[in-house]
Amino acid sequence: MINQFDAVLFDLDGTLIDSMWMWHAIDIEYLKRFNLTPPKDLSTAIEGMSYHETAIYFKERFNISDSIEKIKSDWDEMSHDMYCTKVSLKPGVISFLEMLKNKGIKIAIGTSNSYSLAVDVLKAHNIYEYFDTIVTSGMVGQGKPNPDVYLEAAKQINVEPDKCIVFEDVVQGIMAGKNAGMTVVGVFDEASKNTTDEKIRLANYYVENIEEFIEKYCN
């Protein structure tokens, strides 16, 4: 089935790398500086937002006096070492990237994370060179479910949307891929397991991880 597509577009956090637990830990640590505890709906509320949009949300919801740039800078400082040394790749990632390269299929990332952190974690896992482009929601101005991050990635690699397949772990991301007119594979992630049924309903395909996708659709 993968041969039907000219490009594979990936979300990053929760899809390629097992990192959502880390961001939750950082939310707790960051808000603790202001004697606050993350509300139960926080993860759902910020799902799909760009890095910049999330900073605005934190500033407004928690009445933080720091500037948006200061908030993002603090997050970068808090997350960098942990992000590059403590998170792991999801099962099947390297095998799949190798397969795609061998088939001549283009590979891109469409992420809500910051560009610098995305590059650093890909380099830390020695997979940066596989990707033809990396586009962040901050580059296009709107986070997911808006389709712009995936449309821009497809544009940069010169592939029509209907020839792209997207891998996503959250509902807002799946919607972004669908809104872009692309085929979407929903991927399980522990952090969003409570929305599994909705992900299955929205996505064209659903798998536990990329390793399962290889076994089902690439052999």
Please describe what this structure looks like.
- A 6-stranded parallel beta sheet has the order 5-4-1-6-7-8, with helices on both faces. Strands 2-3 form a two-stranded antiparallel ribbon.
- β7, α10 (196-202) and β8 (205-207) form a beta-alpha-beta unit.
- It is 48% helix and 14% strand.
- The chain contains 11 helices and 8 strands.
- The chain is α/β, with parallel strands linked by helices.
Feature tags:
219 residues, alpha/beta, 6-stranded parallel β-sheet, two-stranded antiparallel ribbon, 11 helices, 8 strands, 14% strand, globular
What's the structural blueprint in terms of helices and strands?
Blueprint: E1 7-10, E2 17-18, H1 20-32, H2 42-46, H3 51-61, H4 68-85, E3 88-89, H5 93-103, E4 106-111, H6 115-124, E5 133-136, H7 137-140, H8 148-156, E6 164-168, H9 171-179, E7 183-187, H10 196-202, E8 205-207, H11 210-217
Parallel strand pairs: 1-4, 1-6, 4-5, 6-7, 7-8
Antiparallel strand pairs: 2-3
Helix pairs in contact: 1-4, 3-4, 4-6
